[in-house]
Structures are given as structure tokens and as C-alpha cells.
Design goal:
Immunoglobulin-like; 3 helices; 6-stranded mixed β-sheet; binds copper (II) ion; 5-stranded mixed β-sheet; globular; 22 strands; mainly beta
């Protein structure tokens, strides 16, 4: 393909996605368990103009639409309705599926051409902290929004264990469980859950709360996620529980990786939480991108 053709394709792809977004309706079938059926229409942020504001509005919709949780043993049926001007597919990243459901056109299935539908069916076998994303032209489709978070069952937390001298109470009650998708390219750009600071609203909690965060890197760069004040106990990598959890104030998350962390909001105040690659969070005009915060109250 000539370079000029690729540029035209990217532009028409973005235009079609923006149009699809304008037609977006709240799906009726989201978060059903058992015989799940989600009618997927790939969407993407409106990335031009005021990126923070537009990304915020658009990706709110995307994350509601595309993040869903399942139980182990659920029969999953997902209908992909391809409204893009180009072919696509979906790979279930971190979930075991039959080979012909692995979503790698043209190896394991035919390409889902523009205007076609394709049905993915599988039964979840084990708990997973997973993602799903386009595999065809992933370098273009994923950074432009063709991805989502995908959680199956429960991944155990190391409560009752002592790690580096710190005792994690038994039978911990988790005040919040937060999926945090990292992105850095395409029309979405540098973002946390598809929002760029200041659209990244702070998280709020009370002193003493325990929080679980699952980082998902759907971007093309590594992001060392730094939490001020509260060390993060890394307890699962790619959804696989660690025999030896470890504490870290900065957790590097490479493309494709997932890290699950547990931490306690120990002190009141406003505590910043951000990627520590500094030009992912600050420009000459101030903070932007992959920054958010905790507001911890007494
Ligand atoms: Cu970063």
C-alpha cells in the first residue's frame, strides 16, 4: 500500500468512527451474565480540538460499552457488527478460547469485512484479568479505540499474608475495585481510562479504605504508574496471582500487560497518581495526560 493510501484510509476510518459514535445508543445487553450477547460497534474518541473534553465524553461511552465482567463457566456470545470502512477482528487477550475464536484473521478466521458480522462464542474456563482488542491492523485500530477491559471471575487478593513486614488483614473488605486502562496513541492519546487530565476526575475514598486497581496497557509505550504516599502491593500479573506479591510505589506496565495492585488509603489529603514518564504528564502549559489523584477524607 502506498503511503498516501494509508493516510486516506486512516482518515476515512476516523470519520466513520466519529459517525458511529454520533449514532451511539446505550446498549441493552451490556453486563448480562450467562448467555451474554453484546452487539459491538467499534467506537473511538473524538480526538480533534479540545482533546481532554472530547476524549472524556466519547470514552465514557466506550468504557461503559466495552468493559464487562463475567463469571467462570459463563457461555459468551458476542456479535461483532463491523461498521468500519475496513476489515477487523477481535482477539481475547488473556482468555483461553477455542482456536477458531482467537481472533487472528486470516489465520484462525476470515477477516470480518466492512458491513459483515461475526459471532464469537466460548465458555470462560478460569478467572482472568483480560483485554480484548482488534488484531487486524492492530497498530492502527487499537490506538484508535478498538479495545476493552474484560474481567472473568475473582482473582484472589493476598489478605492474611505478610509481605515485607506488612501484614495484610484477613477478610479484607475492598472499598473500590478500579480498572485503569492506559493508552498513549491514536486519536485517544495519552490517557487514563481514555481521559486526559484535567478530564481525569480524581478518585475519592476514606482513610483506611483498601483499594484494588487493575492496570491494562492498551497503548504502544511502557507507563510506570506512580502512586504518591500509598505503596501498591502487586499481587497479580496478567491476571495470574503471584506466589510472592511485592510492594512498589511505581509499577511499570508494558503494552499488553496487566498488573493488579492492592493498597490502603492511609492518610488524608490530595495524593497525585500518574505515569512517571514526565512528558506523558506535563507540557510547557502544565499537567495533562496520564495524571489523576486520590482525594482521601478522614
Ligand atoms: Cu506514560
Amino acid at each position: 500500500m502506498a503511503k498516501g493510501d494509508a493516510a486516506v484510509l486512516v482518515e476515512s476510518y476516523r470519520t466513520a468512527l466519529r459517525e458511529a459514535l454520533a449514532r451511539f445508543d446505550e446498549p441493552a445487553l451490556l453486563r448480562l451474565r450467562g448467555d451474554l450477547q453484546v452487539v459491538s460497534r467499534w467506537l473511538v474518541a473524538r480526538g480533534d480540538g479540545d482533546r481532554a473534553k472530547s476524549a472524556s465524553a466519547a470514552l465514557d461511552a466506550v468504557s461503559r460499552f466495552y468493559s464487562f465482567g463475567l463469571e467462570v463457566g459463563d457461555d459468551v456470545r458476542i456479535v461483532v457488527d463491523n461498521q468500519l470502512p475496513m476489515g477487523t477482528d477481535i482477539h481475547w487477550h488473556g482468555v483461553k478460547v477455542p482456536n477458531n475464536m482467537d481472533g487472528v484473521a486470516p489465520i484462525t478466521q476470515p477477516l470480518v469485512e466492512s458491513g459483515e458480522t461475526f459471532v464469537y462464542e466460548f465458555t470462560t474456563r478460569e478467572s482472568a484479568i483480560a483485554m480484548y482488542h482488534a488484531h487486524h491492523h492492530a497498530q492502527m485500530q487499537v490506538p484508535n479505540g478498538l479495545f476493552g477491559a474484560f474481567i472473568v471471575g475473582e482473582t484472589p487478593i493476598p489478605d492474611g499474608q505478610t509481605v515485607s513486614g506488612v501484614e495484610i488483614p484477613r477478610n479484607l473488605e475492598i472499598a473500590q475495585e478500579i480498572p485503569m486502562v492506559l493508552n498513549d496513541a491514536g486519536v485517544i492519546g495519552l490517557s487514563l481510562n481514555a481521559k486526559s487530565f484535567p478530564a481525569t476526575e480524581p478518585y475519592t475514598g476514606k482513610v483506611g479504605d483498601w483499594v484494588v486497581v487493575h492496570y491494562f496497557n492498551e497503548g504502544v509505550l511502557v507507563h510506570p504508574m506512580h502512586q504518591h504516599q500509598f505503596p501498591q502491593l502487586v499481587f497479580a500479573k496478567d491476571g495470574i496471582p503471584l506466589d510472592h506479591p511485592y510492594w512498589a510505589d511505581t509499577v511499570p506496565v508494558a503494552p499488553g500487560e496487566r498488573y493488579s495492585v492492592l493498597f490502603q488509603l492511609e492518610d488524608p489529603g490530595v495524593w497525585v497518581w500518574h505515569c512517571h514518564i514526565l512528558n506523558h504528564v506535563e507540557s510547557e502549559t502544565g499537567m495533562f495526560g496520564m495524571v489523576t489523584a486520590w482525594i482521601v477524607e478522614e
